[in-house]
Amino acid sequence: MSQEIPYKIYLTEEEMPTAWYNMRADMKNKPAPLLNPGTHQPMAAEELYPVFCEELVKQELDDTTKFFEIPEEIRNFYKMYRPSPLVRAYCLEKKLDTPAKIYYKFEGNNTSGSHKLNSAIAQAYYAKKQGLKGVTTETGAGQWGTALSMACSYFDLDCKVYMVKVSYEQKPFRREVMRTYGASVTPSPSETTNVGRKILAAHPGTTGSLGCAISEAVEVAVSTPGYRYVLGSVLNQVLLHQSVIGLETKAALDKIGVKPDMIIGCAGGGSNLGGLIAPFMGEKLRGEADYRIIAVEPASCPSFTRGKYAYDFCDTGMVCPLAKMYTLGSDFIPAPNHAGGLRYHGMSSTLSQLYDDGFMEARSVKQTDVFEAAEMFARVEGILPAPESSHAIRAAIDEAMKCKETGEEKTIVFGLTGTGYFDLVAYEKFHNGEMSDYIPTDEELAASLSKLPKV
Amino acid sequence: MSQEIPYKIYLTEEEMPTAWYNMRADMKNKPAPLLNPGTHQPMAAEELYPVFCEELVKQELDDTTKFFEIPEEIRNFYKMYRPSPLVRAYCLEKKLDTPAKIYYKFEGNNTSGSHKLNSAIAQAYYAKKQGLKGVTTETGAGQWGTALSMACSYFDLDCKVYMVKVSYEQKPFRREVMRTYGASVTPSPSETTNVGRKILAAHPGTTGSLGCAISEAVEVAVSTPGYRYVLGSVLNQVLLHQSVIGLETKAALDKIGVKPDMIIGCAGGGSNLGGLIAPFMGEKLRGEADYRIIAVEPASCPSFTRGKYAYDFCDTGMVCPLAKMYTLGSDFIPAPNHAGGLRYHGMSSTLSQLYDDGFMEARSVKQTDVFEAAEMFARVEGILPAPESSHAIRAAIDEAMKCKETGEEKTIVFGLTGTGYFDLVAYEKFHNGEMSDYIPTDEELAASLSKLPKV
After folding, report:
1. Domain check: are A360 and A266 in the same one?
2. Do A111 and B375 count as a contact with CB atoms less than 8 A apart?
3. What residues make up the domain containing A293?
4. Torsion angle, alpha carbons of B270, B389, B240, B131, to 10
5. pLDDT tens digits for A181-192?
6. Residue A382 contacts B, CB cutoff 8 Å
7. Please, are residues A270 and A167 in contact by the beta-carbon 8 Å criterion?
């Protein structure tokens, strides 16, 4: 391995992207539009304004503008934790004794612990610019809620987070990070909303669900003057903001004259994957270059590999618009996999269309195999990875081992979305041999897929 | 404020230090030697070899060699998480509306979460080079134990950590990080050592103490072939390794043409402070430049500001050599301040001599004031700081506010030693208004100081 390439490739602040890239502009087959859940007609911007910030609605619906300038205020915030390093994994390569060259883009060097901050700060900025008082959101494991709290604190916006009650009680640390940043964190279901009270009356003692928390956050947003609802994944606007990951990655690779053979990302709702691959996919869509692009999802929640490409509800509460996507059915309840950020029944519409058109591959990996890769990576590369990110590590290691068999010197780039400091209960289970692999049966999937809405 | 200086100043890998700097070489009044606790004679190298690695003993005793080359293997490890950024705190300056220019050197961007890794990797390297099988150590809150586990994993050394039982049980997260890196973590006191069994027999149900954990770790090191004991602070060798912090800081400041007026560091045993100030203190000792150098310690454990400069035991078990230092008495039990890393009764001999000779100032700060500063910093600068590091933040903010009063544009540099991801119980107490300030009474201090050994 050539030591001429440094361990970490940093862009200078001048080399950081000044515009986000909108993959949809280069897609011949555009992602299908969101549909009104009542009329099954495409949602107009006006229908979305009561829920989302206006500028974000425009970004959501725009599939022709190629670049959106990143406002200076957001670029200044990015400078506090970006550019993130592109790391050459010399130690992992040595450990695997592979001829492959492995790079990873590390997004965990910020207090939210993940890439989520890239979109949180953008959404908070547009909310502030619109003159709003605050935003509402839901959070499960807490990565998104933490990122949004940091962003709102920076722009002096009120932030109301509905946190799934079981997480609120069992994961007090993330809750306290959010409180440090001034957010109000309410365990969901709560007495503060109609939908919360209704659920509590029907199911006393329930520990909540993401679907319920979404419903509460949306209710508060639409019923409180000066508030809107924000979301950390799945949406086109989120993928747009997250393109900063891929743009930096490509700029850093160009700087050292390296063209990757494959790009690997973990996939839940698609925020990281869509951001990481954006400029590479752009070249592929325009016929300028070819790359293997690999989405890695948990075997317990395999929307790409075992789901159906169809219109479905985005939330389990079935109040949000319908999106066409690879889905396991909004009724599907993923097993308690420790990669909470990947436990979503559907997938970004944009990525779904690209996958359906054959522009990317997908594979699923088992949880114990993921933690085995995570531990190996931590020991040689130093960074304790998040369970979500470790799905990409697993696939990168598998590909590097194939190179060892064939002798090929392929260049592998993967996204290391975050750190696992708040996931140590999962690591403990792994160390104690108490971790299981959950794989839904064909019957389970058929049952939830049979309830897809008729569109 | 000039935006010409970037938010983050990174050195390139070529600009990273290739040698550690030994402050003692430039001191006219050398730090007093370690004394044999039995004979009260200076410890010879041979007396220390059974406990410590040979090369580290040499570094410990050498007060004339100015530079020690950093071996290439250690420099390669450093490259995985160093150079650490020197950050211009534009957002904090704006929040304070101060003419002061504030910079901080951030050492938290690694899985151990602090600067401790800088010395851990050096100590593990020399242990490996000596052909040892493994090392033993103690850990309280777990920062040092985590760093050492990472370092041992990298060099394939066995790592036995004795963790104070109450922390082992109440802080399972750090324990699991250590296990991820392959360390064996034993709650102390344990049945695995003579001293442990003795203490358990005398005090059944005890939750342990750092003093006891040290005694167990030392016993295992000296009684197990191929093992030595390692320590994460206080010692001269540790300050030597940590000089990488200050050397990088100075190189980055030189790069942007900035000369600081003051350098501020938190002080427990002295590992961070001694490393951060090293090259600046060197210039001061050689009469080449002048800087204000400020040590910040907790009001609950004020060794510099209220202690006595005298020979004392380094451990509460009184088995280690005697060191001349500012001390509160080895019998002093610091109140349960949340900055676990600063709860040490003594202070590095080198720093003690420099303080006694008037080369640096010291001040103590109250815990609630520290957390107030920590929260303000987190909200504007994004990083959630460790309670230890927040002592330096408090002093930096206080100095910046003085500049606001006087209108002086002073340049302040402080050390941000680590992140607070594993300290959220403390943040929670602060948010809930349940945090107290502990300040020892004069009578308490007099009582513990009355038991200093007669030398």
Report:
1. yes
2. no
3. 8-15+83-113+243-449
4. 100
5. 999 999 999 999
6. yes
7. no
Look up residue B155 and give its two tokens: 């060099």
* Domain boundary, last residue among B197, B229, B261: B229
For B6, the closest chain A residue by CA position comes to A13
Asked, for residue A27, whether it belongs to a domain, the answer is yes
Q: Are residues B211 and B305 in the same domain?
A: no
Instruction: Read off the CATH number of the domain in which B263 is found.
Output: 3.40.50.1100
Same domain, B95 and B194: no
pLDDT band, very low/low/confident/very high, at B191 (cuts 50, 70, 90): very high
Decide which of A183, A207, A229 is a domain's last residue.
Answer: A229
Contact across the interface for B111 and A382, Cβ inside 8 Å: yes
One domain, residues A216 and A321: no
Interface predicted TM-score of the whole assembly (ipTM), two decimals: 0.90
- Pick the residue from chain B with its C-alpha nearest to A380: B154
Cα–Cα dist A252/A249, whole Å: 5
Interchain CB distance below 8 Å, A176 and B110: no
Residues in contact with B385: Cβ distance below 8 Å, sequence separation at least 6, in sequence order: B108, B374, B377, B378, B393, B416, B418, B419, B420
By Cβ distance, the residue of A421, A427, A428 closest to B421 is A421
Is B337 found in the same domain as B304?
yes
Q: Would you state the structure tokens that stand for residue A200, as one six-digit string?
A: 């509590």
Beta bridge pairs of residue B185: B161
* A431 and A300 within one domain: yes
Please state whether the peptide bond connecting residue B189 to the residue before it is cis, i.e. omega within 30 degrees of 0: yes
| pTM for the whole structure | 0.94
The answer for residues whose C-beta is within 8 angstroms of residue A223's C-beta and 6 or more apart is: none
As for how many domains chain A has, the answer is: 2
- Whether B431 sits inside 8 A of A153 (CB atoms) is no
| Distances B195 to B136, B190, B212, B215, B318 between C-alpha atoms, Å | 15, 9, 8, 7, 13
In a domain, B219, yes or no: yes
| Dist. CA B282–CA A275, nearest whole Å | 47
Mutate to test the interface with B, among A72, A106, A111 (most CBs of B within 10 A): A111
Domain assignment of residue A236, yes or no: no
Question: For residue A74, is it within any domain?
Answer: no
Residues of chain B contacting residue A182, judged by C-beta atoms under 8 Å apart:
379
Assess whether A303 and A385 both reside in one domain.
Answer: yes
Report the run of H or E that residue B117 belongs to, with start and end. Answer: helix B117-129
Do residues B199 and B306 share a domain? no
pLDDT of residue B316: 67
The span from the CA of A443 to the CA of A175, in Å, is 37
